[in-house]
Amino acid sequence: MVSRSIELLSRHRRASLLFALAAGTLIGDLSLFIVPLLVGELIKTFGFSEGQMGLIIAGRLALLVVTSFLVASRMHRWDGRKVAIAGAGAIVFANLISAVAASTEMYVASRFVLGAGEGAILTAVTALAAKTRDPEKTFSLIALGVVGGAIVVYLTVPYALAALGLELTFLLTALAVLFLAPALWLLGPSSNDTVVTAMTAFPWTLVGAGVLLAELLLNVGANTMWFYVELIGARLGLGVEHVGTTLALVCLFALVGPIIAHQLNTKYGRLLPISAGFVLLGFAAMLTTHAATPLFYMVGISISSAMLGFCGIYLVGLAAYLDPSGRLAGATRGFVAIGNTIAPGLGGTILLAGGTYETIGWVSLLASLGAIMVIYSTVQTTSRPIPGS
Prior knowledge:
Number of helices: 14
CATH superfamily of the largest domain: MFS general substrate transporter like domains
Radius of gyration: 21 Å
CATH topology of the largest domain: Growth Hormone, Chain: A
Mean pLDDT: 81
Helix content: over 70%
Number of strands: 0
Shape: globular
Structural class: mainly alpha
Largest sheet: none
């Protein structure tokens, strides 16, 4: 009877921790989902050009990266729950300032504060999730929650913006963060589901750098194609409404990657699933960019959507295995942001240089194959055996 009670208590604590980790990740990603939907209205309200909007977004991502690296390097000493709560507070403050901004300078400053808050909470939550006993399962469940949140955002924010305007949309974003924030109290190293270990050196070793480089290649390769997915569809004769409907359906396929990762866990090791995921991701990019019919186009972006999340889960799981302190896993969030910053510029450079969407497909394929080579070559330098190697 006592053992049964202990088991139920352990399950309750794990469920509470998973809910807190998913809530924290969604708080950090919320503005990343919403801002692209607001670009047109922001240009009208503040008079920004498209180029200026790009620079503001790049500046915010730069603050996210810097904060991510700072937090990751100290996660073996700092209280992850306090860092996450501070990050959430900065996000709320930034959205409130954006809602009442009376000048472009005030709005831009609020976006930089937002980037710092996002970097803090995303890195802290990722580092804490890396300390759980089954990182791949933990990250797959978090991803499911975040994708579900993204679907809700994409279905509601356009209507909220049209009905309420820009200022109230920022205010509602702040209220949404405040609604989720109490869950962050459930974070912390006191949970029975965490493995409390701390490496003495920050993991900028060759193997650590290899994992981070693979994370960078993942996001550069996949997102360089994704930034042009609407135009690729238009080339096939699909109207904007058809592409929009297709992308909404593709959001459902984004759930497939985390579900497969959760079921597989480490049954076949870590390197084999990562390799298979990257191969499928590269194949999907080629299929999408070389599609001659809408059917192949839809199949390509569906596979790409599923495998992007799948590869990300296993990469951060590998980082958690190599560095149980959570710092290497936390640092991956910064490289996600760097990849998302590089991708549109790389795609634009390819097209301006005379390349085509097919060229972008080849670049995405090479990035996927390069990530596999980087992982296999760098894990040979670690003394820890990698399952599946």
